[in-house]
Every structure is written in structure tokens, then in C-alpha cells.
Amino acid sequence: MTEPAPSEKKTDAEEKPQPTLLEQMGGVSGLIYSSLPVIVFVLANAIFGLTAAIWTSIGSAVAITVLRLVRKEPLQPAISGFFGVAIAAFIAYRTGSAKGFFLFGIYASLIYCGVFVLSVVVRWPIAGVVWNMLNGTGHAWRKDKPSRYGYDIATLAMALIFAARFVVQRWLYQEDYTGWLAFAKIAMGYPLYALGLLVVVWAVRRSDKRLKALAETEPKPETDAEVEARLREKYAAPEA
Fold first, then answer.
1. Residue 226 has what pLDDT?
2. pTM for this prediction
3. Using CA atoms, how far apart are residues 43 and 53, in angstroms rounded to an integer?
4. pLDDT at residue 222, rounded to an integer
5. Strand boundaries in 9-73, DSSP class E
6. By C-alpha distance, which of 33, 181, 44 is closest to 103?
7. CA dist., res. 183 & res. 238, Å (int)
8. What whole-number distance in Å separates Cα of residue 162 and Cα of residue 173?
9. Are 119 and 155 in contact (CB under 8 A)?
10. pLDDT tens for residues 47-87?
11. How remote is the C-alpha of 27 from its chain's centroid?
């Protein structure tokens, strides 16, 4: 039996579908998993009190991590979620209030908003930096102003989402609406993030199209043979 040619193997690898944005975020299951500890916390707090709510939320985060490990699913979302729940539970314990469970997320949104806005001010919009870093496409997009402006818009869209999260959830926190805080955290999580990613995708496609067009209009470098032929023609002795 003959082995497939290297070119065939390369073609098969190239044809392998790349993970979508939703899959990179953890898929639909990621949305469900991220919501479970919050729901468990609110329900346990209403029925059994704060201490039980803290431990059951941490327990649910551990169970989700183990389940992902057993099912061989991406662990990064689960690990991030676990540490997020652990920090939130610790703050709730220290403050002695159920609404303290949401305090970390509220101010994290404010910090993220500030970082995203700052990245636009210094002309390194995070949307462009992260996307092109993950895809290994370098920094050519920064030399093209329309491309950079598109990433500015995408970055500011994400900043607006974080700002909205902070304003709404901070108000609910001050008003002691713990149940509504849980609802807002879930509703303003993945759904809003998905809307922001649509703007990022628009910026990426716009930039890729522009950079491709610019690359096609640039003169191609001469080969060694072409350079040699041009020099011979230039310095050739005139005919008698």
C-alpha cells in the first residue's frame, strides 16, 4: 500500500475546518455553563442562605470543569469561569452580602472599558491587536488608516458593551436587586458579547479586503533573472 503524497496530506490539513468564534468561546455549552453557577448561587441564597449559596456555586463551577475534562472539551473557558466564581464567592463571603457575589464582575467591566478606550487613544485598538496576533498576520493593518479606523470602531463597540454592563449592574447593586443582578449578568454576558463580535468580524473582513487589494496593486519584486536581463540591456554595448 502506497502512502499519500505530501501534497495530498497538506491539502487535507488545509481543508480541515477552522473553529468558529462561537466554538472558540466555548460553544452553546459555554453559555450554559457560565450561567449555571450564577443561577445556583441565587437560588441557594434564596432557599438556604448565603453560606450555602457560596459553596454550591463553587461546587457547580468545579463540577463543570470536571465535566469538560471528562468530555474532552476546551478547558480554558471552564478554568476561567471557575476562578471568576471563586473570586466572586470570596467577595460575597467577605462582604457578608449576596450582592457582593457580583461586585467583581461589575468593576471588571469598568476596567475592561477603560483599557479598550485607552487602546484606541494610543492607536493600538485591542480588536485589531488581538485578532491579528492570534492569526499571525502581523501589523500591516496599522499602516492602513481605514483598516485601523475599522478596528477602532470594533474596539469602541466592545468598550460600550462593558460600559453598559457597569452602569446597569452598578445601579442594580446599589438598589440591592440581587435577583435582577443575576439576570443582568447573564443577559448582558454572551448575548451582548456576540453583538460586539459581529462588529469585530465586520472590521476584520473590511481590513482583509483592503489589505488584499493593496497587495495586488503593489509592484512585484524582480527575480534575479529579471534583474540580470535588465542590467544587460542597460549596459549592452551599442551596435556599430
1. 61
2. 0.75
3. 8
4. 58
5. none
6. 181
7. 86
8. 16
9. yes
10. 999 999 999 999 999 998 888 888 877 777 778 888 999 99
11. 13
